[in-house]
Amino acid sequence: MNSKQVITKGVVETVIDIKKPVNFTGGLEFQSLTYTVTKKKKVDGKWSKEEVDLLHEITGYAPKGCVTAVMGPSGAGKSTLLDGLAGRIASGSLRGKVSLDGNIVNASLIKRTSAYIMQEDRLFPMLTVYETLMFAADFRLGPLSVADKRHRVEKLIDQLGLSSSRNTYIGDEGTRGVSGGERRRVSIGVDIIHGPSLLFLDEPTSGLDSTSALSVIEKVHDIARNGSTVILTIHQPSSRIQLLLDHLLILARGQLMFQGSLKDVTHHLNRMGRKVPKGENPIENLIDVIQEYDQCDFVGVEVLAEFARTGMKPPLLSDMEEISMSSSVVAPSPSLNREKSQDFSYSSQVSRSLNDEFDHSLRSPYNNNTSRSWSASNSAAFLKFTPSRLKNEHKVKKAPSHVASPGFYTYSSEIMPETPTPHSSDYTLNENDYLTPTNGSQEHLGPKFSNSYIGETWILMRRNFINIRRTPELFLSRLMVLTFMGFMMATMFHNPKDSLQGITNRLSFFIFTVCLFFFSSNDAVPAFIQERFIFIRETSHNAYRASSYTIASLITHMPFLALQALSYAAIVWFALELRGPFLYFFLVLFISLLSTNSFVVFVSSVVPNYILGYAAVIAFTALFFLFCGYFLSSEDIPIYWRWMNKISTMTYPYEGLLMNEYQTNDAFGSNDGKPVTGFDILRSLHIGTDEIKKRNNVLIMLGWAVLYRILFYSILRFASKNQRS
């Protein structure tokens, strides 16, 4: 990136262009990236809003076939820049232009040509390394044959150095698996199985020891050498890792402080007037300098960003302290005149300091009469360069095409050969001269998804069944609870008395059964919340559709839900000698379990963590239980609360079980010597006595199950996006 200051009618303007090698053969280019957020700030006891630039006018590039590292102190904007380049900032929030190999990047292009490896490893713990990569191949390499997919997976395992752990589980806190470095390499392999041309990695060495971190970066370096554009954020890399980083972008306060190769850092500091002590790391030294300016009361990192753009030397901090001390001894005068006097004294001394300290080596050897314009422009530019004016003063302008090409000096002879940098302030560079030529249209990217709808669903179902088979605790715990409770209910409510108390006891059995089935699905809350992060990672680059995931999840769990309902129904039905068709009794329990499971999964997709998920499910359970018709019949509930009876998922299974038991003229007890028939019980509870009501209740429960699944899909499709707003 380079910039020129041009004096037009006495006004200094900054013109920013991409600075990249003349032989730049492709990669990612970005211009004037700015990301502004609104934050609340408390001033004088009142809350006010202010706009803050997390990224400000960042212009640069990442060469193809190289590893570009984004570095800087904490809060510099490293991850924000990575998210902006990867399309993970919501449309309209990020300003600027990003292009890949000359093509303007949009959401569709970035999804199909890139991969983003998150800082956390989001993998299924009970899949082996081979299975994890094979499922990734199934999702991303749909048209290939199984043999070709296996060949590519085996080759990738060898390239990533995972041969020894090929059949080892990924593992987690409770299951022993691969090491941290191996898990990170598996995460990388999952996202590069389809050979993306653009690879983003957020802190790939975080949490790893030095040896594992070096191994990960070595594999990333090999990926770049195979032709991919690799961009990663990294914090405090070791000296061995630094040798593998081809291109550096150093940020501070959302602004670009340096761009170039590792060997250019020392030269950059020397031009700044800073010498790197022998034996010290130049990157760490530059970051220390950045933090010194950031903590200075007189200037900030803006002057370093200006130096990176234009070559205008930042004032030495020692000089700034001397100027501050001299300006503080100005003779006293009235307040207004004193302020003016101090401002003039301070400004003139800063101007003289900058004129003396400016890097004169940047002057053009072909235009020696420009020194006067350099001095004037530099002084004026610095006096105008304040944080409050930065946003408005620096505008990207396009120079006329007839401007002559200036002379240049060279930074690096390997990574950035013949990198152009301006020597004079009397010209501007045309940004179009340095942008990669485009062919006017993007190449055909193929279908959005690699597999058909049915193919995706089948792959997801296979993976779900493997996970359930290897983690049977969730399914078996539900089955054991329902089986045990079935035996307990069968012994407690056996042989009810032919009296009103016997009828009350039987009603208590039915309502407890409904509550038991509702509570048995609560453990699905953490199950999906843990899997949600994997879903976001996989769907962020079109591995499969959200609808396929929803259908596969439903189909996978239906047999297990049916088995749970059948085990409970078989025990209590025969032991308690219940009336009505057994099939209907089982169907009500099964669909009740299905609708409840759908509701719990929907809630878990909305809440951010399982603690809030449990709290929400318990709260809704209490409400549904209160309005299901057991405590107050539907007619006795106040009219303004009757809608709760209609939306309660406990209402319909409760009424269904009662209709199956009591739609008969048989007597179940007596009241004052008068027999009480089943129809009498239903009428007293304001529950329908027609046979068709039984069918309607089942259909309504199915409707609720479908509705909750549709809501679940909607959350996945439109709300589960890993993007900044």
UniProtKB/TrEMBL annotation:
Domain of life: Eukaryota
SMART domains associated with the record: AAA (SM00382)
Every ABC transporter domain range: 28-278
Protein keywords: ATP-binding, Cell membrane, Glycoprotein, Hydrolase, Membrane, Nucleotide-binding, Translocase, Transmembrane, Transmembrane helix, Transport
Single GO MF descriptor: ATP hydrolysis activity
UniProt keyword Translocase, yes or no: yes
InterPro entries xref list: AAA+_ATPase, ABC2_TM, ABC_transporter-like_ATP-bd, ABC_transporter-like_CS, ABCG_dom, ABCG_transporters, P-loop_NTPase
Stretches that traverse the bilayer: 475-495, 507-529, 549-576, 582-603, 610-632, 698-716
Protein name in the entry: ABC transporter G family member STR2
Organism taxonomic ancestry: Eukaryota, Viridiplantae, Streptophyta, Embryophyta, Tracheophyta
